[in-house]
Amino acid sequence: MSERPHDHSQEAKWLGLVAATAGVAGAVGVVGAAAGAGFVTLLKRQAEHAREVIGKPLGEIAPNADKIYKKSYAGAPVELLLVGDSIAAGLGAESAKGTLGARLAKGIANRIEQPVRLRTTAVVGAETSMVMAQLAALPAAYRPDVAVVIVGGNDVTHRVPAGESVAHLVEVIEALRGRGSAVVVGTCPDVGAVRPLPQPLRSLGRRVAKQLAEKQAEASLAAGAHVVSLAEVVGPFFITNPDEMFSIDRFHPSAAGYKRTAKAMLPSVLAALGHVEEVPFGHLLPVPDHGAVDPEG
């Protein structure tokens, strides 16, 4: 599949979110036709304000956390791969040990008492269409035991149609499974947890992100991946404890936010590795040829 031209500017991101949320608003009747133009103008002003408030204090390079964790344990290292966007890359963590990858690697190692080798190809600002390029950069012989995919936020802010985004995600899952890897997909986070987004932009952004997350989950399960709903398993913590969970830009997770996210995702990663059979609320287990098992029944 061909990649869309990618615009890294914050302006394009926020105005893209405006257009997407305004479209959803019209579709669900949030505003009438007579009020539509004024409503979109309001959203644009709110997006411009959010862009100014957030800025880019973290830059675009996440800490490099790739290495073998817990070498003191016996056995060959479990190969853990993280692909996707800035969350998978760990942007917002103050140091390598605070990234999502590092937290997951240590969590896996401590639970199964085996070393874990982390490899991260996730790129800050990546849309789903760009993840195949991350896989293409891997050595042909590389075989991860489990791959964690987190992507979708940039698809929302860049107005990528959900169907197009999900089609790229399925392509990524199939490519990873073709390498012999189990796959865990963290679905699109809750955009509504981002405080710099004022109302009604925040609520409408949440709606768009939720719709994408639902489509990601359905397609990922059908493709044989494990699924973790980030909005359900960690979203509430970011809403109730924003000062702790968010980094200085109030948009990306902090080290504490990544610690919480890794802890929440760990059950599905362990299940994908075959070390646990049951997972908690917000996690879905694929069952070949039978759809998915909902742990809540």
Write up this protein.
It is a single chain. By secondary structure, the protein is α/β, with parallel strands linked by helices. It has a single domain, classed as Rossmann fold (3-Layer(aba) Sandwich). 47% of the residues lie in helices and 11% in strands. It has 12 helices and 8 strands. It has helices spanning 10-28, 33-54, 86-89, 100-112, 131-136, 153-157, 162-178, 201-222, 230-233, 235-240, 242-245, 255-272, and strands at residues 68-69, 78-84, 116-120, 146-150, 182-186, 226-228, 283-286, 292-293. Strands 1-3-2-4-5-6-7-8 form an 8-stranded mixed sheet, with helices on both faces. Helix 1 packs antiparallel against helix 2, helix 1 packs across helix 8 (201-222) and helix 7 (162-178) runs parallel beside helix 8. The protein starts with 9 loop residues before the first helix and ends with a strand. 50% of the residues are buried. Residues 1-12 and 18-35 have low confidence and may be disordered.
Summarize the entry for a quick read:
The chain has helices at residues 10-28, 33-54, 86-89, 100-112, 131-136, 153-157, 162-178, 201-222, 230-233, 235-240, 242-245, 255-272, and strands at residues 68-69, 78-84, 116-120, 146-150, 182-186, 226-228, 283-286, 292-293. It is an alpha/beta fold.
List keywords for this structure.
297 residues, globular, Rossmann fold, disordered N terminus
